[in-house]
Specification:
Helix content: 55-70%
Organism: Nakamurella multipartita (strain ATCC 700099 / DSM 44233 / CIP 104796 / JCM 9543 / NBRC 105858 / Y-104)
Largest sheet: none
Order of helices and strands: HHHHHHH
Domain HTH cro/C1-type: 15-69
Number of strands: 0
InterPro entries: Cro/C1-type_HTH, Lambda_DNA-bd_dom_sf, TransReg_Diox_bact_type
Radius of gyration: 14 Å
Oligomer: single chain
CATH class of the largest domain: Mainly Alpha
Number of helices: 7
CATH architecture of the largest domain: Orthogonal Bundle
Number of domains: 2
Structural class: mainly alpha
Protein name: Transcriptional regulator, XRE family
CATH superfamily of the largest domain: lambda repressor-like DNA-binding domains
CATH topology of the largest domain: 434 Repressor (Amino-terminal Domain)
Shape: globular
Distance between the termini: 13 Å
GO molecular function, one term: DNA binding
Amino acid sequence: MDKPIDMAEAFGAFVKAQRQLANISQRQLAKASGMSDSYLSQIERGQYKPSAEVLRGIAGALHIPPAVLFAQFGLLDTNDEQAPRVSVEEAIRLDDTLTQDKKDALLHMYRTLRDSA
């Protein structure tokens, strides 16, 4: 499997996990982000690389900063040496907008995806 396909699949899994953590259906997220159900489904399965506009729509519908999705999809340089380094697990633990149950679920999903690579 080549790298762009792996990135699209990882990004799709991330979007799906965020949608599930938000407890909304694929149809609800598609409508809220201004796209069709089938297009969102294809993004979640890693079959399409969404445009910046689509990423902004998804981010808005999930109530997360667009930069999070841009970085996740490799469109934002996250290797800036001046930026503070925070692990994914630490960021999840520090997120005051998530309940402890959601943090636990997200940590479990993150570890499962990370360890399956």
